[in-house]
Amino acid sequence: MHDRDRVLTTAMAGVGVIVGLLAGLFVGWVLWPVQYTDTDIADLKPAYQDEYILMVGAAYAANGDLEQAQASLARLNDPDPARRVALLAETLIARGADPGDIERLVNLADALGAYGGQSPTPSTGFQVRVGKVQR
Question: ∠ at Cα 40 (38, 46), nearest 5°?
Answer without folding.
Answer: 135
